[in-house]
Amino acid sequence: MKVLFVHQNFPGQFRSLAPALVARGDTVLAMGVNNFAGYPGIRYVQCRPDRNTMTDGHPWTKDFDSKVIRGHAAFRAALNLRNEGFDPDVIIAHPGWGEALFLKSVWPEARLGIYCEYFYSADGADMQFDAEFPSGSVEENRSRLLVKNAANLLQMPQASAAIAPTRWQADTFPEEFRDRISVIHDGIDTSLVKPNPAAGIQLNKRVNLTRSDEVITFVNRNLEPYRGYHVFMRALPELLARRPNAHVIIIGGDDVSYGAAPPAGHSWKNIFLREVSGRIDAQRVHFLGKVPYKDYLAVLCTSAVHVYLTYPFVLSWSLIESMAMECAIVASDTEPVREVLSDGEQGILVPFFDGRKLVDEVCGLLDNPEKRRSLGQAARSRAIAEFDLRSVCLPQQLGWVDKLFAAD
Q1: Domain 2-187+389-406 in this protein, CATH class
Q2: What value does the CA radius of gyration of the chain take, rounded to a whole number of Å?
Q3: Residues 25-52: pLDDT tens digits?
Q4: Under CATH, which architecture does the 200-386 domain have?
Q5: Which of 27, 155, 328, 334 could make a disulfide contact with 95, Cβ separation 3.0–4.6 Å?
């Protein structure tokens, strides 16, 4: 089988599937906008846009314009590949940035499978969820999101099949498309992501933390409201006052992954840090920024309680990784968290905005090692049973590709 992967930041969600197809003997190419160092056996084609998004049009059309520009760049690269003699049997694409918009024009016989990460809605999900950061009226959002979703709506009818990591994310898509979406998570390697009783982390010359310490962990790709950073920071003064021996480790960058950017010249990290800076013991709050994967896992290994907060939005890999690490988790009672954590069984769910409840549950777990152990073991068992890469998710992904190849 000849397979073309399309992702603006390849490998992205295809980090395990693409090498697995190579390993079983398929011919695999990949296409994307950003630089990629390469996988053995995978040729990578970079498709660079030849222009920037327009600046003189309607603000709502800029997002769609950028996707058309990226789609056209991928279209040109596809023509070159076809002229070289490459004709894929299957195209597997993330449609979110537009690169797959026009590929079926080049290869009409190829079967297109798309990754359904998220379909925006004006209500019932991230929009209007947090009144502190209004995004306009419901009516305005409904209109604006029609345009924002346009690329998805153009690509879905071209697709023979689709895949989504959670049922809730699949169900954000229009009902008429859902029967094409298979719910298969990206997968976590639970043989790598596993607890280590001897783990420890040296933060500086004075602070060396182990699993015997009160370590509270919080992880985002970037520290921002969509992932509850503001709620967590506002809870810290009370949490640190009630736990005088606790240390808090925060991992995440200063950029923006989701939602609105902070005011010019500022970062969400510093905005909310300044808000509480006079009420926390800075010697016990450790910002590590973005860290190598092995260091991130070492932090999770030392965690006594892990906090995960999110708007109703896409699920982070970090939640499943913390489950696989046997962390005692306090998480927001939001979708799709509810889909993977049952309250009181694999973790504790709290209302997203209820900082006092968050503090109470974290302190309660710190006082109850047996409950932490029980929740952590149940969380790891569920991670292995439902999200293990090798035994569950990757075989399902490969089966999905085979069905895509055989689709009419």
Answers
A1: alpha beta
A2: 22
A3: 999 999 999 999 889 999 999 998 888 8
A4: 3-Layer(aba) Sandwich (3.40)
A5: 155
